[in-house]
Amino acid sequence: MGWVWLAAQAALDHSLIDYRSGIAPGRIVEIAREEAREIYLNNILGNAAGLTVTDGLNNDEIEARLPAILAGCAEEAVRDPALRIYKSAQRARERLHFLPNLHPENSPPGGS
Question: For residue 107, what is the DSSP state?
Answer without folding.
Answer: -
